[in-house]
Every structure is written in C-alpha cells, then in structure tokens.
Please model this.
Amino acid sequence: MKVALLGYGKMGQIIERFALERGHEVVLKINADNLDDLNKSNLSKADVAIDFSAPDAAISNIYACFEANLPIVVGTTGWYGQLQEVKNECLSSNNTLLYGSNFSIGVNIFFHVNKVLAKLMSNFPAYDVQVEEIHHTQKLDSPSGTAMTIAEGIIEELDGKTEWVNELVGSPFEDVIKKEQVLIESHRIENVPGTHTVVYSSEVDDIELKHTAHSRAGFALGAIVAAEWLQNKQGFYNIADIFNFK
Ligand SMILES: NC(=O)C1=CN([C@@H]2O[C@H](COP(=O)(O)OP(=O)(O)OC[C@H]3O[C@@H](n4cnc5c(N)ncnc54)[C@H](O)[C@@H]3O)[C@@H](O)[C@H]2O)C=CC1
Ligand SMILES: O=C(O)C1=N[C@H](C(=O)O)C[C@H](O)C1
Model:
C-alpha cells in the first residue's frame, strides 16, 4: 500500500515505522508546517490516507480525501460532534472512511467487555458507574474519544443512564451529577499514553475494569491493520466492524 500520513506527530511517526515494517510505502507526510502539500495531486499518489492530526484539522482533511476519492482511516479524536454529517457526505459521494476512537486490540476487547458488564449491572441498582481517563498533558481534547465510546457503550446497555458529562480535573466544574448521567473524569498527567477505567461502586465494594496502554504501539499497529482491512472496500466503517465481537 502507498500511505499518506496526515499528521506526522507522536502517532504519525510510529505508524510510519509499522507501515514500513509491514512492507508498505509512505508517499506523503503532512504536518502543520507543510499544509500546502495536502492537495489532490499529492493525495492521488496514495492508496490510503491515515489521519492522526488534531481535532480542528480532521474534518478538512477528511473532505480533502473525499475530494481526491482516497480512502481514509481516521484516528484523530475530538470531531465526533460532526460524525453524522461526515457519514452522510462519505456515503453520498461514494467514498470510504474508517474511524475509531482507539485502534488497540486491548481497548477494543475492553469496549466489548464493558457492554457485557453494563448489561449485567442493570440487575444490580445498588451500584453506580463512573468512567475515568488519564492522558498526557499535550492532549487537546477532553474527554478522550475512548472514554466517550466507553460511556456510550454503558448508556446503550445499562438501564437508567441516558447521557454522559465530563469533568476535566483541575478545571472549574460545578455540575451536580444527575442519576441518569455517567460522569467521565479526565486527568492530565505527564507522559501517560492512555489509561481508562470503568468503576461500579456500591456502599460495600467496587468493581473496576481497567485498560492501561504501556506505549502508543498498539494504537499505531491497529491503524495500519485497519488501513489494510479497508483495501477494496467502500463505505463508512468503525473499528468495531473489523473485530466484530459477538
Ligand atoms: N484512535 C486512536 O487509537 C488514537 C488517537 N489519537 C488521536 O490522534 C490525534 C493525534 O495524536 P498525536 O499524534 O499524539 O498528536 P501530535 O500533536 O503529536 O501530532 C499531531 C500532528 O498533526 C499535525 N497537524 C496539525 N494540523 C494538521 C493538519 N491540518 N493536517 C495534518 N497534520 C496536522 C501537527 O503538526 C502534529 O505534528 C489526536 O487527536 C489523538 O487524540 C492518538 C492516539 C491513538
Ligand atoms: O490523544 C491521545 O494520546 C489518545 N487519544 C485517543 C483518545 O482520545 O481516546 C486514544 C488514546 O487513548 C490516546
């Protein structure tokens, strides 16, 4: 595969390493300082684009790929408010996009187990649930995309929960958490690649489900595997479509 890397920061550089190891070629690398190179002519040299850029860059990068009819894998988080609009545009222009809040195998197993546990916990109303995420201090978005996916999985399966709210610890937060809300608590600590915990608490005990990324390697390998999976496909996909856990 010929790969265009949209975003060549912490993730883009590790993705390049895995791409080369797996026999692919990187034909384009875009960062904030060479955005002029992100044009139809350069994009048309690639078989797939992989976007790990920034929350405020993802949408225009996606549309640039649609314009060039180039399939795109989107790892960037923080743009999901426009997900439906992007999906409509992807499908109506016969383009191809796969997105995921987290590409690591471990977190995708976690997503599945989280939903199974949430369904079970509907039988035990003595427990209330909370999601915690910890990331490095350069992270631009809060809550993490992964924490949003986890909270949405809980809302889908746990009776009585209808929405999530976010507290970025250290920032002003005066909300009173309502019974129907899932609190996502975000912590920013130097050098943490990504830790997510779901905690069910009752008066007598806690149950915790936790994923700790030791590095960014799992995310990066997952993004390349997703790009390989996307070859010869058309449409709008989520990382869950690859794993298809039952
Ligand atoms: N889905 C997943 O598994 C994962 C997602 N992420 C997400 O990926 C994104 C990037 O993460 P990092 O690599 O850690 O960030 P980073 O800040 O290290 O790198 C981002 C790069 O994007 C570049 N950039 C800025 N504007 C751009 C534009 N318009 N087009 C192309 N590149 C542009 C910057 O110059 C920077 O080098 C974040 O949104 C993060 O949340 C990160 C890790 C895993
Ligand atoms: O910004 C990051 O670093 C990460 N972002 C993703 C997210 O928002 O969930 C995935 C991973 O946790 C690392």
In short: The domain at 105-212 is CATH 3.30.360.10 (Dihydrodipicolinate Reductase; domain 2). The mean pLDDT is 97.
